[in-house]
Amino acid sequence: GQNIDQPTEMTATEGAIVQINCTYQTSGFNGLFWYQQHAGEAPTFLSYNVLDGLEEKGRFSSFLSRSKGYSYLLLKELQMKDSASYLCAGAGGSYIPTFGRGTSLIVHP
Amino acid sequence: DTGVSQNPRHKITKRGQNVTFRCDPISEHNRLYWYRQTLGQGPEFLTYFQNEAQLEKSRLLSDRFSAERPKGSFSTLEIQRTEQGDSAMYLCASSLGTGQETQYFGPGTRLLVL
């Protein structure tokens, strides 16, 4: 099984950079996902990491350290529309993600 | 729009009634997943299908819950004798089924049991 831990809530200022951390304990690790979920909407895929290191996609980057059981999502040049819940999910042997509770990010002017 | 669709979007029912939800995945996706999400929590895995075969079920899926995917395309999730604790958002997702399984979620069905 999987155990995912991430902060409940974070706040940041428009234009700033924020890092959302996630630690996981897993059996049969097959990668780590990040999803964004706006209130009342379905989760949307942001990133997938299976190898150690940083993957960059525009304003969003995701990092994975398998030896430390650690990942983070980095959001640059924050915009008000980035206010959402960010879900960390670890994939096990059958690639089914186990989701954390999500980190609610509030971006203020 | 060729994304994942779910019907109905909202359902209000009385305790003890049966409800059925439908999910239509992205057409070329072999895997289909059902999740349940309550306020302040991440999605909780319920079950998934590879084509028409139901390969895994969570311990969360009590015997009142049943899911089918008869032709390997759309799926239905039925809850019998609903309880107030069943109130949640029921999310469906699909993926290619070829390895790295990025899931694409539908808009969900919000169930309220009175």
Question: Which short descriptors sum up this protein?
Answer:
A: mainly beta, 6-stranded mixed beta sheet, B: 114 residues, mainly beta, 4-stranded antiparallel beta sheet, globular
Could you characterize the architecture of this molecule?
- The complex is a heterodimer of chains A (about 110) and B (about 110).
- Chain A is an all-beta fold.
- Chain A has strands at about 1-5, 10-15, 20-25, 30-35, 45-50, 55, 60-65, 70-75, 85-90, 95-100, 105-109.
- In chain A, the strands form two sheets. In chain A, strands 2, 4, 5, 9, 10 and 11 form a six-stranded mixed beta sheet that branches. In chain A, strands 1-3-8-7-6 form a five-stranded antiparallel beta sheet, with no helix packed on it.
- The mean pLDDT of chain A is about 95.
- In chain B, about 35% of the residues are buried.
- Chain B is mainly beta and about 110 residues long.
- The radius of gyration of chain B is 13 Å and the shape is globular.
- Chain B contains no helices and eleven strands.
- In chain B, strands 2, 4, 5, 6, 9, 10 and 11 form a seven-stranded mixed beta sheet that branches. Chain B has a four-stranded antiparallel beta sheet with strand order 1-3-8-7, with no helix packed on it.
- Chain B is about 0% helix and about 50% strand.
- The model of chain B has no long low-confidence stretch (mean pLDDT about 90).
- The chains are: A mainly beta (about 110), B mainly beta (about 110).
- The interface of A and B includes residues 4, 91 and 101 of A.
